[in-house]
């Protein structure tokens, strides 16, 4: 009987493979139906597109997806410890998301003056949901799916330095031994920390800490679990891209030339998933590949088509760009380093 670890691994791989295949089949089937209508119910064009979709999925599975997955699973330690990118998500974006967006762009240029197929809702939602599922699988792999997660707090790899570490750094390491054990030990975890602020046995990102300070009838409201927060963070991470693609589904935008910058910039924003969530490049990459281009396109869309996109997302992109420039660039100037400044 296979172990639970093997069952979880097989389940993850099957889910990712389904996310690779299903969006391509759905998008190409809708495109085949559109071609059949344009050609006056010509079934030859329909089955030709379906055959192309089957051949494409089979080819990329045998020659790209399976070799990449095999190499990643065999060399997981190398990619986890050395690199700051995720090759599986990059492979998925290039093999599934890019072709689906290309087919959607092609469908916008098909002559459909009589028949208007709402090509956007089901295919686009499925493409983005599959991408979110792949992102969830890659991020939830280190976590245990079983076990109690309620009433627990967790800590990340980047822990805050203890009081003793900060005092030793300020005093140049002098009188460090005179500090009491209560100061040198973390009051939350109850585990002594070293000079660098980390505990003697460095905990992983999946470590949990019991919280003994909030027990009672309402303790469920104080509970935190990284597995639940992971799902929330991922969906919030993709909401801006989902809204941009939704704007592309509006008929006036879909059949205009503005559909090209909408889908191209939406695809570029999906490349952020290639970078690991704890990478320092994620902040600048998010501004350059999403917030700044989305801000320009949304302002242009509002000027041309009216309020097709909520102003909330415009303000979000504007504030993210301004705060990025201010806190990461302007605050490093000498004029902001004076103590008399606010």
Task: Describe the fold and architecture.
This protein is mostly helical. It folds into two domains: 1-141, no CATH class; 229-333, no CATH class. Helix content is 61%, strand content 2%. The chain contains twelve helices and two strands, in the order αααααβααβααααα. The protein has a two-stranded antiparallel ribbon. The longest helix has 35 residues, at 4-38. The protein starts with a helix and ends in a 14-residue tail after the last helix. InterPro entries: Uncharacterised_FAM23-like_TM. The chain crosses the membrane at residues 12-32, 44-68, 89-108, 253-275, 295-328. Keywords: Membrane, Transmembrane, Transmembrane helix. This is Transmembrane protein 236.
Brief synopsis:
The protein is mostly helical. The chain is 61% helix and 2% strand.
Q: What structural keywords apply?
A:
342 residues; globular; two-stranded antiparallel ribbon
């Amino acid at each position: 009987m296979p172990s639970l670890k093997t069952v979880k691994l097989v389940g993850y791989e099957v889910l990712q493979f389904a996310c690779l295949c299903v969006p391509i089949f759905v998008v190409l089937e809708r495109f085949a139906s559109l071609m059949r209508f344009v050609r006056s119910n010509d079934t030859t064009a329909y089955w030709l597109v379906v055959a192309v979709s089957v051949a494409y999925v089979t080819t990329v599975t045998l020659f790209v997806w399976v070799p990449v997955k095999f190499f990643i699973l065999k060399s997981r330690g190398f990619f986890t410890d050395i690199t700051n990118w995720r090759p599986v998500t990059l492979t998925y974006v290039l093999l599934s998301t890019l072709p689906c967006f290309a087919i959607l762009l092609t469908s916008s240029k098909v002559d459909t003056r009589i028949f208007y197929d709402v090509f956007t809702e089901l295919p686009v939602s499925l493409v983005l949901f599959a991408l979110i599922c792949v992102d969830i699988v890659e991020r939830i792999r280190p976590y245990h799916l079983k076990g109690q997660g309620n009433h627990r707090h967790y800590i990340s790899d980047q822990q805050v330095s203890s009081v003793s570490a900060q005092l030793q750094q300020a005093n140049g390491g002098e009188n460090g031994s005179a500090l009491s054990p209560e100061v040198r030990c973390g009051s939350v975890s109850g585990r002594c920390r070293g000079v660098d602020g980390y505990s003697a046995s460095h905990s992983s990102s999946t470590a949990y800490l019991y919280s003994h300070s909030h027990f009672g009838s309402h303790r469920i409201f104080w509970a935190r679990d990284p597995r639940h927060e992971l799902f929330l963070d991922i969906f919030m991470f993709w909401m801006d891209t989902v809204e941009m693609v939704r704007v592309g589904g509006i008929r006036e935008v879909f059949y205009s030339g503005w559909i090209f910058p909408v889908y191209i910039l939406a695809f570029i924003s999906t490349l952020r998933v290639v970078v690991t969530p704890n990478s320092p490049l994620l902040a600048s990459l998010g501004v350059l590949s999403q917030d700044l281009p989305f801000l320009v396109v949304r302002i242009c869309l509002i000027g041309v088509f009216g309020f097709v996109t909520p102003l909330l997302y415009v303000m979000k992109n504007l504030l993210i760009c301004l705060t990025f420039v201010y806190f990461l660039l302007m605050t490093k100037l000498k004029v902001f380093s004076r103590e008399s400044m606010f």
